[in-house]
TrEMBL record:
Residue ranges of every copy of the CBS domain listed in the record: 7-63, 83-139
Protein name: CBS domain-containing protein
SUPFAM superfamilies cross-referenced by the UniProt entry: CBS-domain pair (SSF54631)
Keyword Acyltransferase attached: no
Keyword Methyltransferase: no
Alphabetical keyword list: CBS domain
Organism of origin: Kineosphaera limosa NBRC 100340
Annotated PANTHER family: CBS DOMAIN-CONTAINING PROTEIN CBSX3, MITOCHONDRIAL (PTHR43080), REGULATORY PROTEIN (PTHR43080:SF26)
Superkingdom of the organism of origin: Bacteria
SMART domains for the chain: CBS (SM00116)
Family matches, as InterPro entries: CBS_dom (IPR000644), CBS_dom_sf (IPR046342), Diverse_CBS-Domain (IPR051257)
Amino acid sequence: MLVREIMTSPAYSVRPDSEIDDALQLMAERKVTALPVVDEGEVLVGVLSEIDLLRRAVEPDRRAHVLPVQESAPLPRTVGEIMTSAPRSTTEGSDVADLITLFTTSSFKSLPVVRGNQLVGVISRSDVIRALWRRDVDLKDDLLAAFHDYGQDGWRVQVNSGVVEITGTGDSRERDIAAAIAHSVLGVRRVHVTPAPEG
């Protein structure tokens, strides 16, 4: 599964000079955990995440602390003041399996998707979850259609909980082609290709 097949595009984004309140409203209304920050040319220059907002956009409440009354620094006003610069991103042709590893071993909940330096979408944990949930019968229909489109109708296809079992005659190259076709279908989690039993 490739990023371009499941990413959200176009992505919500903000500019460095956007007001933090406007970004907060967008995140709350659209239920997103981060916003790519782009310049006038849609070039990715940063990311504004929940963590950025939590760290810098709220002043401590003196009622909860024994603090002397003192002049505090002004709260930041624009996204550019608190965003994370030089953010991690991915590309449309990246393997979703690699992103799953990143999502499960880090605090990242989403990543901007770029073509060159320009923002083209966002991929999130939620996008991956939605892509993984498909009924086996729907997957099998899509797999059979994909095999037919590539002129590979000789393979037997079974699906169980997103795991695809392909059986048929063919050399190692043909088995690799069959596996590639199966992997191209959205929702396929794993593919096994086995030669048909002789006899």
